């Protein structure tokens, strides 16, 4: 079919995905991809180090370290090291993810409804299918079903790092598609955490959180960008969110979505761009690797790897990540482009969509967070779930690398 016969190719608004609209968008995308690639490498090292230490002679030291409490009892913040990593450091990660989402909504691939349709639908389906497969395997096991959301998440840094290593020479649109899908996926994951993994709500603290967020929004509106005002306010918002009973990582996304991303006259960088430039290195080089170090270390000395990975819970997570994610992403993309006016970018092939679906099966960071929230007191289920996350992410990465290598050779 020629371009004249296919109006979707002549009208960019009808395209499902147009990776780069402006030079500014191209520079932003390039910086994000480079940072996340570096972060993925550090993340992998931190995770492997945690597994090695947890199963070595230093395993008991590692376990004691995670349970060591630090902080201030007077304000309700005397937490374990593992707790600080999950609630505190990951709030930084979600702040950056939220800023990425805000950028995409204003300038990027999510700024036009039709253009945004494919990655949004693919992200949603890529969360629904793994959860459904997880339920099918574990239906009837009420204790294990608590972790139904574990395989729904995608690790941006890890997935982009794998893509950077194995996907050299593949179209930039593939990277942008994956980034957009992963950002929407992260928003879905944090929404699930806020709704389904929150127990008791302190309404007074919740009201205070909303009030502080309103103050932050007003400061953004009136272009107040002094760091010595915004940083303490951000910490207060995080503290109030934590005290309200909602998982504190939600504070990161909330702040990001209220941060102004549009430029004003005479402004070289918006507050969102400035914040992202300052915070992203902290997230990439410190926050996420420390969390990975505290979360990935599963002690298999007494459990046994074969028995643990062979458990129903572990298999359900692996199936969700390795099978559910690609099915959701590919199936929804095919149906959308088949029965609507949406089209894939002309530089993308279905093998690229398959690669994105497989890369989306790398759960790691957020999956490990949901694992910790799901099985706080059950050590056995916690260990089985961690093995499932690590194994499923590894298998997804290996298959994705194979698919991309084949695609690159054919190209």
From TrEMBL:
Q: Which GO terms describe its biological process?
A: regulation of pH
Q: Which of UniProt's keywords are assigned here?
A: Cell membrane, Membrane, Transmembrane, Transmembrane helix
Record bears the keyword Membrane: yes
| Residue ranges crossing the lipid bilayer per the database entry | 38-63, 75-96, 116-138, 145-170, 176-198, 205-224, 236-258, 279-298, 313-336, 348-375, 387-406
| Compartment(s) of residence | Cell inner membrane
- GO cellular component annotations of the record: plasma membrane
**Keyword Ion transport attributed:** no
Q: Which GO terms describe its molecular function?
A: sodium:proton antiporter activity
| Membrane disposition | Multi-pass membrane protein
| InterPro entries according to UniProt | Na/H_antiporter_dom_sf, NhaA
Report the main location listed first in the record: membrane
List the HAMAP family. NhaA
What is the protein name given in its UniProt record? Unannotated protein
């Amino acid at each position: 079919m020629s371009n004249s016969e296919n109006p979707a190719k002549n009208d960019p608004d009808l395209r499902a995905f147009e990776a780069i609209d402006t030079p500014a968008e191209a520079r932003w995308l390039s910086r994000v991809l480079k940072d996340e690639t570096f972060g993925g490498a550090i993340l992998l090292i931190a995770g492997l180090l945690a597994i090695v230490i947890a199963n070595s002679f230093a395993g008991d030291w590692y376990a004691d370290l995670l349970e060591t409490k630090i902080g201030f009892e007077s304000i309700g913040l005397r937490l374990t090291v593992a707790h600080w990593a999950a609630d505190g450091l990951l709030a930084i990660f979600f702040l950056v993810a939220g800023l990425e989402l805000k950028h995409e909504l204003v300038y990027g691939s999510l700024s036009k409804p039709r253009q945004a349709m494919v990655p949004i639908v693919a992200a949603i389906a890529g969360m629904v299918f793994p959860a459904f497969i997880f339920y099918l395997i574990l239906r009837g096991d009420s204790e294990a079903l608590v972790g139904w959301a574990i395989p729904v998440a995608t690790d941006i840094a890890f997935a982009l790092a794998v893509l950077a290593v194995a996907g050299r020479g593949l179209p930039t649109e593939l990277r942008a598609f994956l980034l957009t899908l992963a950002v929407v996926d992260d928003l879905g994951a944090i929404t699930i955490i806020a709704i389904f993994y929150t127990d008791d709500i302190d309404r007074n603290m919740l009201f205070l959180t909303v009030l502080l967020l309103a103050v932050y929004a007003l400061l953004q509106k009136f272009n107040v960008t002094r760091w010595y005002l915004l940083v303490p306010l951000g910490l207060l918002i995080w503290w109030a969110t934590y005290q309200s009973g909602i998982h504190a990582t939600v504070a990161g996304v909330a702040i990001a979505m209220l941060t102004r991303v549009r430029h004003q006259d005479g402004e070289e960088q918006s507050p969102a761009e400035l914040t992202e430039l300052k915070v992203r290195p902290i997230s990439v080089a410190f926050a996420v690797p420390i969390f990975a170090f505290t979360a990935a270390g599963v002690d298999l000395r007494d459990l046994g790897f074969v028995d643990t990975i062979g458990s129903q819970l572990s298999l359900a997570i692996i199936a969700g990540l390795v099978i559910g994610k690609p099915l959701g992403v590919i199936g929804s993309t095919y149906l959308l482009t088949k029965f609507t006016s949406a089209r894939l970018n002309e530089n993308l092939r279905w093998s690229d969509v398959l690669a994105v679906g497989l890369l989306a099966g790398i759960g790691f960071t957020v999956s490990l967070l949901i694992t910790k929230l799901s099985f706080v007191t059950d050590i056995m289920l916690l260990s089985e779930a961690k093995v499932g996350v690590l194994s499923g992410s590894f298998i997804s990465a290996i298959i994705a690398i194979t698919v991309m290598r084949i695609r690159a050779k054919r190209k």
